[in-house]
Each structure stands twice: as structure tokens, then as C-alpha cells.
Amino acid sequence: MPADTLAILNQHINAALSDAKLQATASALGMDARGSTPEEMRERMAADVKKWAAVIDKAGIEKQ
Q1: φ, ψ for residue 35 (rounded to 5)?
Q2: If you write DSSP's letter for every residue of the chain in order, what string do you get?
Q3: Based on the structure, what is the number of domains in the chain?
Q4: Is residue 12 domain-resident?
Q5: What are the pLDDT digits (tens) for 12-41?
């Protein structure tokens, strides 16, 4: 993902995570919803892609 796109996405996610209602809902669900830096977000997204690609491959799900 281009750095400028990632920065904008990260900015909006962090803004949403500062909402008290969202935090209350997340807490009620046992979640700890926190913001991150764009670099942390990039690293997390890369790790998630790798993780879920392995799950999809193991499950034999065809790419569409």
C-alpha cells in the first residue's frame, strides 16, 4: 500500500478509535481497541496477509 494511502487510512482509523462509544462497545466485547503508527499498521497488515494466506491455502479455498 502506498505510504500516503496508509497514512490517511491510519489517521482515520485512529480518529475512529478515539470515539468514546466505539471504545465502550469494544470494551464490552472484551477488546482493547488502540491506534497505531502507520509503520505499525503496515507491519500488522503484512503479518495478517501472511497468516490468513496460510489458513486459506490449508483450507483449500480457491482464489476468486
Answers
A1: -80, 180
A2: --HHHHHHHHHHHHHHHT-HHHHHHHHHTT-------HHHHHHHHHHHHHHHHHHHHHHTPPP-
A3: 1
A4: yes
A5: 999 999 999 999 999 999 999 999 999 999
Residue 1 Cα to chain centre, angstroms: 13
**Which distant-in-sequence residues (6+ apart) come within 8 Å of 17 by Cβ?**
23, 33, 34, 35
What domain range is 12 assigned to? 3-59
* Predicted local confidence at residue 26, as pLDDT: 96
Q: pLDDT value at position 64?
A: 85
Question: Is 14 within 8 Å of 38 (Cβ atoms)?
Answer: no
Contact 13, 37 (CB under 8 A): no
